[in-house]
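Here is one chain, start to finish.
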Amino acid sequence: MNIQFKKGVLDMCVLAVLMDGDSYGYDLADSLSGRIQLADGTVYPILRKLASDGMVSTYLMESKNGPPRKYYHITEKGKEKLADDLKEWSSLKDAVDIITGGKV
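Its structure:
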C-alpha cells in the first residue's frame, strides 16, 4: 500500500481503535498491523504526537509479564477529532468514487 495513503489516515485509525477501549502501544500496533501493513515502530511516534496534542491520555498499569505498560486512552478532544476526520474521510472517499467511477 502506498505510504502516503497510510500516513494520511494512521492518526484516525489509531483513534478509532482506541474508541474500542484503552490499549498499550504494542497491542495497538499489533491490532493495526493485522489490517494495515506497518513498519515496526510506526505507531509509537503517532501515539506521542496524539498525546502531546491532547487527543489521548496515558497511564501506567502493572503487567504480569514485566514492567508496567503505558496505556493510551482517547480523550474527548480525541473523540471530536476522530468524528471530524471520519466525516472528511467519508467525503473524500465519496469524491474519489465519483471521479474513478467507483472502480476503486
